[in-house]
Amino acid sequence: MGIVLRKILKKTTCNNKDGITFHNEVIISAKFADSMDLTNKTKRSYTVQEIESGLYNAVINFDPVSFIPYLVCDITKPDAATKSGFYNYFRMMVRSAKYRAKGEMHLVITNHKVLAEDNEWPFDGYQLYDFYDTEHKYSLLTFQVKKTEDEFYLNLLPF
Questions:
Q1: How confident is the model at residue 136 (pLDDT cuts 50, 70, 90)?
Q2: pLDDT digits over 10-63, tens only?
Q3: What DSSP line would sit under the chain, residue for residue?
């Protein structure tokens, strides 16, 4: 059995109303920590189409780690406080979909429809990427995606 090197990503301490102190550490593997290092000068830049393809393959193959190089790319803009925070949520949702999926996954892309009369809908121009399996009526994963020539905006919906 090999040794897995780990790196502490974030430490938080908080007190509840009863004065009890909770300590929380987010610990990740050293390999993941190195790939999430945003100061890494050797990271590759990808096109919007390559990032879209990387997202598709990561979800279809239930392999969230394969999306890390695309996520750390400068043109990927996840709707999260940090890219590592988005990745942790993405990994959890892909793992959950893996255990719920029946049969093969497939992707259905639809455009957002503006239901209100005002044109200030914040998700205008976004597309919904719904990943379905062969049995369930509703999607297992849904992303809001907006693509421009040089940016790939990404939001993972909770339900």
A1: confident
A2: 455 555 555 565 555 555 554 455 555 544 445 688 999 999 999 999 999 999
A3: -PPPPEEEEEEEEEE-TTS-EEEEEEEEEHHHHHHT-TT-TTPPP--HHHHHHHHHHHHHTT-GGGGHHHHSSTTEEESSSSHHHHHHHHHHHHHHHHHH--S--EEEEEE----SSSS--TTTT-EEEEEE-SS-SS-SEEEEEEE-SS-EEEEEE--
85: CB partners within 8 A, 6+ apart? none
pTM, rounded to two decimals: 0.69
- φ, ψ of residue 112 to 5 degrees: the values are -65, 140
Contact 155, 129 (CB under 8 A): no
Region class of 114: left (phi > 0), else alpha (psi between -120 and 50), else beta: beta
- Pick from 124, 123, 126, 132: which is nearest to 145 by CA? 126
